[in-house]
Amino acid sequence: MKHLIFAAGLALAATTAPAGDNGMTTKASALGVTETVDAMVAAMEGAGITVFARVDHGAGAQSIGEDIGASQLLIFGSPKVGTPAIKDDPVAGLFLPLKVLVYQDAMGATKVVYEDPAAMLGRLGGVSEDAAYLQPMAGALARFTDAASN
Asked: Which domains does the chain show, CATH number per domain?
């Protein structure tokens, strides 16, 4: 049993790069870009989270004769969680709602990337590093990206 738990931990570590100096977290998905975003949308809608937009960067590039591969940006959130951040610092509205980028890398692998809310909003003067909304934001990002990348 210990070996199974250890192997599962290694597999997760191999597919997730925690937020580093730049505050970004990258995860691998076994699904394609569209399927990964579809899975996140389903998980979010099932949890009552609002999906505000799905931006297809790949299609945008194709519309001008360029090819960047599959790439979609998902914009989502909950006014209940985000509004307190904007009340603390109106500039938080520049960073919210939350965003997740799903793209196909040069090797054809699907990557899921998001910025840690504490790193993202911590640059603002009015947002405290221990603000109560940072943990729910980080938890939602981790849960929804895990649901789509595992």
From this structure: 2-149 (3.30.310.70)
